[in-house]
Structure formats: C-alpha cells, structure tokens
Model the fold of this input.
Amino acid sequence: MTQAQETGMYTQSMDLPDDAAEPRSAGLKAVPQALHPSEAELQAQFDTRIDADGKIEPRDWMPEAYRKTLVRQISQHAHSEIVGMLPEGNWISRAPSLKRKAILIAKVQDEGGHGLYLYSAAETLGTSRDQMLDALHTGRAKYSSIFNYPTLTWADVGVIGWLVDGAAIMNQIPLCRCSYGPYARAMIRVCKEESFHQRQGYEALLVMMQGTAEQKAMVQDAVNRWWWKCLAMFGPPDADSPHSAQGKRFGIKRIGNDELRQKFIDATVPQAQVLGVTLPDPELKWNEERQHHDHGEIDWDEFWATVNGNGPCNKERLATRVKAWNDGQWVRDAALAHARKQQHRALKEAA
Ligand SMILES: [Fe+2]
Ligand SMILES: [Fe+2]
Done:
C-alpha cells in the first residue's frame, strides 16, 4: 500500500496516521473504561443507529475501529488548533495597530479554546490529555501540515484568516453532523468562531489592498505562498483514498476531499476578485459544463515531505510546543498543590 493510500482512509489533513499506531506512554494513565457484554448485539445496535443518522455518545458501546479513528482524528484536530496558534502568535507583538493586535489576540485565544474543547471530546473516548500531549511532544502524533510554513509578513496573518481558516471551515462544517456527539457539538461552536476568523482576515486584507503599492504586493505575495498549501489541506484526491469509505460508513466523513476542495475553490475565486488579487494558478478557470472551476495539479510530493517532518518549520513548531509545556510545569504543579490543600481543608472542616 502506498503512503497516500494508507493516509487516504482518514478524513482530511487533520486525520493522518500517527507515526506509531499505539501510544508508548506506558506510564500515563488512561481514562478508565466500562466493561461491555455481547459484542454481536451491540455491533448491530451501533450499525442501526449510524444508519438512522443517530448520535453515538461516550457511554455507548462502539467498535474499536470507530473509537481509534475518532481518537486519532479528534486529537490531531486538537493538536492542529494549538500548533496553529504559533504562526500567528508570532505577529501579536508586531501587529500594525492596537485594533489589529486586539483582534489577533482574540483569534489566537479562540484557537487555544478550540484545542481545549477537542482534547475534552477526545478524552470521552478513553484517552487522557497527558497521553495525547505526550504523543504530540514526542513527534508521534500529526497535526495539520499547514502550520509548518512560516509567516513572513503581516499579510500572512490576513491570508491565514481568509484562506487557512476558510479551508478549515469547509472541512469542519460537515463535522457538525458527525456521528460522535461530543465531537459534533464541539464543532458547532468551533465553526462559529472560525467564521469570525475568516472574516477578520479578509477584512484586514481589504484594508491593505486600499493601501500603498508595497502593501498590495505584500498581500499578493502572501496569497502566492499560501494558495496551493491551502488546497492541499483537504487531503489527497479521493481516488487515492480507498479507505475513506470507512469514515463515511462510520458517519464521521460526510463529504469527500475533492468535493470539499472544489467547494472551497468555487467560494474563494469571487472573493479574490473583490479583493483584487490573482490566485497563482494559470489553469484556474470556470468550466461552464461542470459548473465548477477547473484547477491545476497540486504538488503532493511537497505536501508529503512536509507531513513527514521536512517542511520549513516542523522542528521549530514542535520545539516551541515542548518548551511551552515545560515552562508551564510550575503552573500545573501549583494548581495541583492548591487543589490538594483545598481538599485537605474541606476534609478537616467536615471532621
Ligand atoms: Fe480553530
Ligand atoms: Fe481559526
């Protein structure tokens, strides 16, 4: 099986196979799970509920493959949210005005919040946050490869909001109807906030495009650097994804990679026209017969090289995450010490 085929079984760039199937975090405690009886009956009930478009909840029985697929996808999604804070966080101290700084702080903070809802949703499947973070920090877990590219100018911040958050929304809206209740509910709030992210980015670019020739060139340059990477965010073509049927079967993946990518392109072309930028694809044109835009070939070799750790910022992003985790150890220690003290006091008072 080629790597593209293997990876294609997952729904999007936020659900790529991790480097090890099993976490080797032996010392870390998993969330305890309830025992379950007769599997054939339970499997039948599960299938009936999925077929009826019902929701699966944390206490319900579920097949191991469903649980594993969800843990991988939701934890990769959570990792993507918190690693996604880094490229833009880089610009908070350099935002061009107080207004832009306030908006950017709010946006980056939202992404941290998205990470928290998603880690919580994944924990309901029996994997602890410590296990998930350990997988991220030791390089076994994947996150969206889009965050392994650098943010060279202020225009990158606008383009990330417009295109990266825009592509994320396209991927995530169908997840609001996914079969796993906690994930679906988390995605409703996440999508509302993502739509604010997209609009703030687009608005920042509209303002720059009314500015000097240098500002306009800066926007065009950022669009040139991000456009193809954003198209790759939807994952490899469905033809290379023979296993995506399983995601559909489980009610996790509702729409194929190519269809989502096409929807994104069709929605973005008129926005680029209003903005006054050129999308860097000479083959991009309206196809009257298909009623969609045709587009050029995506460089999948470059995509896989970045997924596999050789993108321009992979090492820097991971090192920053690990440092943040280590620097925060005293906060976690203090919170635990405080909780113990409170508990001790409560017990003493009760005695
Ligand atoms: Fe987000
Ligand atoms: Fe966002």
About this structure: Residues 81, 111, 114, 190, 194 surround fe (ii) ion (ligand 1) (CB under 6 Å). The chain has a mean pLDDT of 90. Strands lie at 285-287, 292-294.
